[in-house]
Design goal:
This protein has 116 residues and is mostly helical. It has one domain. It contains six helices and no strands. Helix 2 crosses helix 5.
C-alpha cells in the first residue's frame, strides 16, 4: 500500500476539497437529479456536508482554512502550467498581433472561394 501524506491521511485536505465550490456544484447537481423538486443552494449543500458527512474533527475553521489555502496554491500552480506551452517558452494564448494574422488568413480564404 502507498504511504499517503499526513494531510491526506488525516482528512483535512480531502475535507477542504469536498467543501470547494466545484465539488459543491457537482453535489448540488447530483442531488437535483435524484430529487428534482429539491432546491438546495450551495450554502445549504455545504451545511449538509458539514453536518452529516464530514467528521466534526475536520470542520475546525483554522485547520480547514490552512488546507483550503494549500488547495488554492495547488490550483494556481496547475493553472500556471496550463497557460504555458510544454516548452515553457511562449504563452499558449496568442497575442493581439497574432489575431490580426488570423483575420487576414480568414479574409484570404473566404475571398479565394468566392466569398462564401
Amino acid at each position: 500500500m502507498v504511504q499517503l501524506p499526513s494531510d491526506i491521511s488525516d482528512g483535512l485536505l480531502v475535507a477542504a476539497i469536498l467543501q470547494s465550490d466545484e465539488v459543491l456544484r457537482i453535489v448540488q447537481r447530483e442531488l437535483k437529479q435524484v430529487y428534482p423538486t429539491l432546491n438546495l443552494d450551495q450554502t445549504q449543500v455545504l451545511e449538509l456536508l458539514r453536518r452529516d458527512v464530514i467528521r466534526d474533527t475536520l470542520v475546525d475553521p483554522l485547520q480547514l482554512k490552512m488546507a483550503a489555502e494549500r488547495l488554492a496554491e495547488a490550483k494556481a500552480a496547475s493553472y500556471e502550467k496550463r497557460t504555458t506551452r510544454s516548452t515553457g517558452t511562449f504563452k499558449a494564448v496568442p497575442s493581439k498581433d497574432a489575431e490580426e494574422d488570423v483575420h487576414d488568413m480568414w479574409h484570404d480564404k473566404t475571398m479565394a472561394s468566392g466569398g462564401g
